[in-house]
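Consider the tokenized backbone below.
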């Protein structure tokens, strides 16, 4: 561990080189004299709060003497008026603090520097996130600034039991990660496991924020498993509800998405809207979401198998038969439409917002109409795939939507190869994947089905009225 020497000129040269004063245009270094003591101030341009720094510098320049401050801590106690301040001798910790937005004051004669947390990050407002909107309730959302996100939780949970535990991740990026939980409700074994996984992260950088953290904590042997093992939310009220239930919220600096641990499969049947409606309506929405889950997975493989039955036109399900002419096999049509839907999503995502709505409508109409007229696609395929595409948005997790898409493709291919036996084998594969999925931390992925807990399952599927906490 390299430390400050207490020799002013030598420490100035070391900090200038470490912080890149000559190398980086945005690293500001200001020399001043405070009460006859030479000082040098370091701050990243755009991070420092100009009004606060101007008041402090004006106060220091007016000091007649600082001879009574024998060390950095005494200087802080007597001459630094800002509340968030500390002394630091470790050069690496001091440099990291400056890059995080703190102001560093190096004063002559001290073996420690002074770190002042007078920062003002550029940030956007706490508007409602585009995903997870509600008709009623709060319309604020997490942003990319960690301190602001922590304040949004503090505003809702006003109890001393709320703990916001800070961690530094990755040697290069030194990313800030915060574990949020209630002391009296959190599972201690789960908390210890999450701490151990965070401490074991050995990544060169955390460039993708929460996704980099999540992937570093996952079991890499299960990279082929499409089911999401982390549930994200950008809503402070949803994060608050999870904390109150005993879960751990992981906040990552530079990311508006909070990770909810532990994450299990049936957690995805819940959504914020369920709690802003009466219990009966909330229960209906949850059950509808479960039914839609199953429909999006099985509707196209089952329809494909029924269409292949030559007796279908003479049965009670004759309305499912394809009556239009087509040149492309039905399986190829279904697979092609799956890819076209994703193509339209990607194109819409990268289209400027002023053109996105018109592009989506024109693209869908032109492609769909031309494909039908050219006998590439039949209207029935477009109808079923349109339902699947819309139904995917019935739940807020994009990761789960794509997991169902990939598994639906597997079911389609296995059904085409082996018929109803292929559908059964594909379904068995999905069940095996679900049972063997290893969450990042905390119990089984299929709880409360495995191990079975009727009360927990009922609480997930049926929205019950809020009861008083008698604990």
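A designed sequence for it:
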């Amino acid at each position: 561990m390299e430390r400050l020497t207490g020799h002013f000129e030598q420490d100035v040269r070391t900090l200038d080189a470490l912080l890149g004063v000559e190398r980086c245009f945005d690293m500001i270094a200001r020399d001043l004299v405070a009460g006859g003591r030479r000082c040098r101030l370091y701050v990243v341009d755009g991070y420092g709060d100009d009004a606060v720094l101007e008041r402090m510098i004006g106060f220091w320049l007016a000091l007649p003497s600082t001879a009574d401050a024998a060390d950095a801590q005494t200087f802080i106690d007597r001459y630094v008026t800002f509340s968030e301040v500390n002394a630091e001798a470790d050069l690496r910790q001091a440099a990291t603090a400056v890059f995080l937005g703190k102001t560093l004051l190096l004063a002559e004669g001290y073996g420690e520097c002074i770190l002042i947390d007078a920062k003002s990050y550029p940030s956007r407002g706490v508007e409602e996130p585009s995903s997870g909107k509600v008709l009623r309730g709060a319309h604020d959302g997490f942003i990319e600034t960690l301190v602001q996100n922590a304040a949004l939780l503090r505003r809702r949970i006003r109890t001393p039991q709320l703990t916001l535990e800070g961690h530094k991740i990755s040697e290069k990026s030194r990313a800030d990660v915060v574990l949020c939980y209630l002391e009296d409700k959190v599972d201690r074994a789960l908390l210890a496991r999450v701490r151990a996984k965070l401490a074991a992260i050995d990544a060169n950088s955390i460039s993708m924020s929460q996704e980099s953290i999540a992937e570093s904590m996952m079991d890499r042997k299960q990279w082929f498993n499409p089911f999401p093992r982390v549930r994200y939310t950008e809503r402070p009220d949803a994060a608050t509800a999870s904390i109150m239930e005993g879960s751990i919220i992981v906040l990552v600096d530079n990311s508006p998405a909070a990770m909810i641990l532990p994450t299990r499969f049936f957690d995805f049947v819940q959504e914020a809207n369920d709690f802003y409606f009466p219990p009966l309506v909330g229960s209906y929405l949850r059950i509808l979401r479960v039914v839609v889950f199953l429909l999006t997975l099985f509707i196209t493989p089952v329809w494909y198998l029924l269409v292949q039955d030559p007796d279908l036109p003479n049965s009670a399900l004759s309305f499912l038969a394809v009556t239009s002419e087509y040149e492309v096999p039905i399986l190829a049509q279904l697979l092609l439409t799956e890819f076209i839907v994703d193509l339209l999503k990607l194109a819409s995502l990268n289209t400027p917002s002023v053109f996105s709505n018109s592009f989506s409508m024109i693209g869908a109409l032109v492609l769909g109409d031309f494909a039908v007229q050219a006998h590439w696609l039949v209207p029935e395929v477009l109808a079923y795939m349109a339902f699947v595409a819309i139904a995917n948005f019935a739940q807020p997790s994009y990761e789960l939507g794509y997991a169902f898409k990939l598994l639906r493709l597997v079911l389609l291919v296995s059904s085409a190869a082996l018929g109803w036996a292929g559908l059964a084998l594909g379904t068995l594969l999905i069940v095996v994947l679900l049972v063997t999925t290893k969450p990042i931390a905390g119990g089984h992925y299929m709880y409360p089905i495995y191990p079975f807990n009727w009360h927990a399952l009922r609480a997930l599927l049926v929205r019950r009225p809020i009861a008083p906490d008698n604990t």
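Strands lie at 27-34, 37-44, 85-88, 103-107, 113-116, 162-169, 175-182, 231-233, 248-252, 258-261.
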